[in-house]
Design a protein that fits this description.
17% of the residues are buried. The protein has one domain: Ubiquitin-like (UB roll) (Roll), CATH 3.10.20.30. Helix content is 17%, strand content 25%. With 92 residues, the chain is α+β, with helices and mostly antiparallel strands. A 5-stranded mixed β-sheet has the order 2-1-5-3-4, covered by helices on one side. It is globular, with a radius of gyration of 12 Å.
Amino acid sequence: MPQTVIIPTPLRKFTKDTELVEVQGATIGEIFNQLEAAYPGIQARLCETNGELRRFINVYVDGEDIRFLEGLNTGLADKAEISIVPAIAGGC
């Protein structure tokens, strides 16, 4: 079953400005691998060289932060909504 991934604006250069993409996978790690296969270079923006999620990238599955679940091993229900949200810094 395909999963819908919401791609944030800064990463849409990889997806040809597509906001919603569908890929197959049973875990977030599998989804990231499928994203990389379809959109080369995107995974380097999401994960460190050791494979861990970059600290300034937040990923939510149906509104739940995967850091409080099982990280990249977080399982996905059918038709889960996956949101990738880069951290935003700012201030005075």
